[in-house]
Write a structure and sequence with these properties.
single chain, 174 residues, mainly alpha, Methane Monooxygenase Hydroxylase, Chain G, domain 1, three-stranded antiparallel β-sheet, 61% helix
């Protein structure tokens, strides 16, 4: 089923909100979220710097545990667009896929393993975003971004927490 037509600014708000909602759900901090256009992007979530990659292939659970939330958050923008628009997300999706692949390459040993892992994380990310609590946060944050255009990470996380605590029709899963 095709959904209503959305503006580029609104899709950008949902794209960036998708990144932020998944990061929030997984406990991944970020500095800012913005839908202000610049020379390279229509919007962005500015994450804190990742630890530098070690030269050798590292399959440790520690490495995977550090990078998996970041990969899922990176994939979430295009998934959020798809949820709203009903078709595959395009805004920033190619760059996000490239970034996710680079992160996954730090602990996968082949392109086959990397592709399978990214496909699995894409499914996990979509399932997380489609949960009622996440959908509620996604819509609320996108609307807030359309008004404010930019928020600090702290403001955004406080907003996402308030969205659920002030809501009477959505209760967090136990």
């Amino acid at each position: 089923m095709r959904k209503r037509k959305t503006s580029t600014e609104e899709l950008t708000a949902y794209h960036e909100a998708g990144h932020a909602v998944v990061a929030f759900a997984l406990g991944l901090p970020y500095r800012t979220i913005s839908i202000k256009r610049d020379t390279d992007t229509l919007g962005r979530v500015h994450f804190f710097k990742m630890p530098s990659a070690r030269a050798e292939y590292d399959t440790s659970y520690r490495q995977r545990g550090r990078l998996e939330p970041r990969i899922m958050s990176t994939l979430a923008g295009a998934i959020a667009e798809e949820i709203v628009k009903g078709t595959a997300g395009k805004l920033g999706a190619q760059k996000d896929r490239e970034d996710a692949a680079e992160l996954a390459s730090r602990f996968t040993s082949s392109s086959r393993e990397q592709q399978a892992y990214l496909k699995w994380l894409n499914v996990r990310t979509e399932e997380l975003l489609r949960q009622r609590i996440s959908l509620h946060r996604l819509h609320a944050l996108a609307q807030e971004l359309l008004v404010r255009k930019e928020m600090t990470g702290r403001e955004c996380r406080a907003f996402l927490q308030r969205v659920i605590s002030e809501s009477t029709d959505v209760t967090p899963a136990a």
